[in-house]
Amino acid sequence: MELIRVVIGVVMTEQGAGLWLRRHGFSPQRPAKRAYEQQPAAMRAWLDEEYPAIAARAKTENAMVVWADQTGLRSDTALPGRSWAPKGRTPVVRVTGKRLRVNVMSAVSAKSALWFTVFLGRFTAPVFTAFLDRLARHAGRKVHVIVDRHPVHRSKAVRQWLDANAKRLELHLMPGYSPELNPDELLNADLKRNVHASRVHTADQLAHDTRRFLHRRQRQPHLVRGYFRARHTAYTIM
Description:
It is a single chain. By secondary structure, the chain is an alpha/beta fold. It has helices spanning about 1-5, 15-25, 40-60, 125-140, 155-165, 185-195, 205-220, 220-225; strands at about 65-75, 100-110, 115-120, 145, 170-175. A five-stranded mixed beta sheet has the order 3-2-1-4-5, with helices on both faces.
């Protein structure tokens, strides 16, 4: 309303401003979050040079390009959705008061493949290299794995493992603070929408529900391919 008043010189009500915005193609939307630390030049270089070079090398080597990430599910997250109730009487859902958590390491490819591991401990270099080793064995050919700049991914132990397994697997780091470029982040969001950690009673139950959801997604390749067709991830299909 204030912007319209200053720029156009017209005083509008809130309802009038909303109608004017809709008439000109605007709609109320929930903003996407972007880190202040994100570097546009680094992202441009990734999109225009670095990723195309990785894809070209993988094609030459008959290798697979895989996107990986880790996430966690916690029982103290907000309850999903809403529920109808009389005005002034907030509905109540009984949940555990314990702080339960499971961690997930996953990887996806544009060909609809999905790999994952669910674990209760911390995400460490041994956990990561064990996942990479299993990924390379199951792929049956060389794999180029693309990940973010998590400290574990850049650790000395991981670099040593990569040196020893250079013929089987290469690791590539994305630009910092740019999770929207990673299709596996959409799997993470899908997981958190469908597995309600706040409703479980034990960590084992949370791990079971997480594995069950990921096994289901493995049998739904069309949904996995969909992670690569979103606005910010479509560049991965080359």
